[in-house]
Amino acid sequence: MNLIITCARHLEPETEKELSDILEELGDSDAKVSITNMSGILTAETKLEPIEIVRKIKEMLLDEPWSIRYCLRIIPIQKVIKTKIEEIEKAVIDISGQISNEETYRISIEKRNSDLSSQEIISKIASKIKNKVSLEFPDKIILIEILGDKTGISILKKVDVLSVEKTKRSIDRKSTRLNSSHKPISYAVSC
After folding, report:
1. pLDDT band, very low/low/confident/very high, at 173 (cuts 50, 70, 90)
2. DSSP secondary structure letter of residue 6
């Protein structure tokens, strides 16, 4: 898998079709979209670069907000490993070169069907990465997505994850600002 997709519960088949169609439109007619055994979670394996896919889908959404109805979040995954603390730690260290010396970072963990300790994972990884931590405004996010016995890992900027609702709200705010700045001017004339 190199994408994790969330959707509303019980809309997984519609989301699977929607994402398959989008990936085909972007150039991968052989992409494999799978519904997991976790409600509202799908995964996809595509030959396309996952961060680039998210960027292109975001552009589609900005052009045609109604074009995406079922996908809620699309998360690019750079590495997939077994869900074991040692493997997670090693995988993060392997790709940690994506964080340059002056960049800050945050570790975000989303666990589904796992009882691993998030605190233990964070402690082990943080002890190996010497950069400064910024919980509010990190330059990079070390994203650890645990899906039962598989874990997806990415080092991303905040904009690399697509939240469909946030993107649609940003469109609404922009159009509201544009509309409010073009109010008609009325003149009162007294005779």
Report:
1. low
2. E
The rounded distance, in Å, linking the Cα atoms of 101 and 67 is 40
d(CA 50, CA 186): 51
Angle (CA) 48-33-58 rounded to 5° is 55
For the chain, report the end-to-end CA distance as a whole number of angstroms.
74
Collapse the DSSP code of 151 into the 3-class scheme (helix H, G, I; strand E, B; otherwise coil) and give the result: strand
Are the C-beta atoms of residues 104 and 133 closer than 8 Å to each other? Answer: yes
Side-chain-side CA neighbours of 19 within 13 Å: the count stands at 32
Interval 105-124: pLDDT, tens: 999 999 999 999 999 999 99
Give the predicted TM-score (pTM) of the model. Answer: 0.85
Backbone angles phi, psi at 138, to 5 degrees: -75, 150
Query: Which residue has 């605190």 as its token pair?
Result: 119
Helices and strands, counts by H and E, the chain: 5, 9
Give every CB contact of residue 155 below 8 A, 6+ residues apart in sequence. Answer: 78, 92, 95, 96, 98, 99, 105, 140, 141, 142, 143
Pairing mode, if any, of strands 71-76 and 3-7? antiparallel
pLDDT at 177 over 80: no
Provide the pLDDT for residue 186: 43
Torsions phi, psi for 49 (to 5 deg): -70, 125
